[in-house]
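Researcher: Can you fold this with flavin-adenine dinucleotide in place?
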Amino acid sequence: MTDANAFDIIIVGTGPAGLTAALYGQRLGMNCVVFGDVPGGNLYMVENLANFPGFPGGVPGTEWGVKTFQQAQMEGGLFTMSRLESLEKNGDGFAGTDVNGISYSASCAIVATGRVPIKLPGPHSDAKGVNFCSVCDGPLFRGKDATLAVVGSDNAAAQHALTLSLIAHKVVLIYRSRELMMDAVHQERIAARDNIDLMPETEVTGYVGLDLVEGLEIAVPSGGTETLPVDGVFLAIGWSPNTEMIKLPVETIDGGYLRTDEKLMTSIPGMFAAGDVRDTDLYQVLTGCADGARCVLNAAEFIKRSQG
Ligand SMILES: Cc1cc2nc3c(=O)[nH]c(=O)nc-3n(C[C@H](O)[C@H](O)[C@H](O)COP(=O)(O)OP(=O)(O)OC[C@H]3O[C@@H](n4cnc5c(N)ncnc54)[C@H](O)[C@@H]3O)c2cc1C
């Protein structure tokens, strides 16, 4: 490894948390290397980011992501735009190797890798017609008089249903709970769309169709199962944090989220976690940004302390 690849902080992830960490880190005088893929992370799935302060009427998620990426880049640092394959200990610090096999070292690491949507278990979970991003894949159904299912009841499910209701003939929102788990503002908007049907207390038990989804097998409240013909399905049934590249015995909580202390440090000294990948109580852009800023400040203090 050459000195050119030695940094103060390795930042993994270019979502709101990682980009804010990079922005604050460089401005603090820390030399950062940033690994990532999509500028803005999961914001590519957010049609309109309506609750981030400073944008009356909202801002498209992709626009926010690209502008924040540009803002962070302008402060310097190295943006590899490659995914990190492994993060390990390297003496007192850390070593990271990316998908191109290039290795980097740093005194601290900030994991801001977010989380990915969970698939339904069982066969055909990768079939055509099973989707996770309504903004990206919803337009495939435009002009097709489609009936689309959204599975889930949280804010992400709400956004899928609202986006798809502009494209599809009908949207069916299927969820296991009796009540919707989304914000009241989303519930009101959904109630106002006459092409969104609600199916509470209903569980999807399987897909109908082989390579292409043609319907869903559902367990209905009255007991028994039915087949619901649909042209496509959008899942928002849960999340799984992206931690597989951490090759260290780090503590996690239920569901695999990284456990952090009040300084946002994980159980590995010098390794911090920001945003949706950690044990947060609010999975939002605002909290991800705040975590990113706090992580970098705490990492800078950690480096100063360890240098005596
Ligand atoms: C449909 C939908 C609607 C939403 N609506 C809102 C909303 O209205 N308001 C709001 O505040 N929030 C909303 N959210 C939530 C918001 O998008 C997240 O809370 C936020 O993006 C979390 O930021 P993050 O930086 O922690 O993670 P992410 O945005 O997930 O970014 C993490 C990035 O790290 C990358 N990564 C993972 N592993 C690696 C690796 N090994 N190497 C390099 N990179 C890696 C990931 O691919 C990803 O690009 C919504 C989410 C969805 C899905």
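Model: Folded with flavin-adenine dinucleotide in place. The helical segments are 16-27, 61-74, 134-137, 155-165, 184-191, 285-306.
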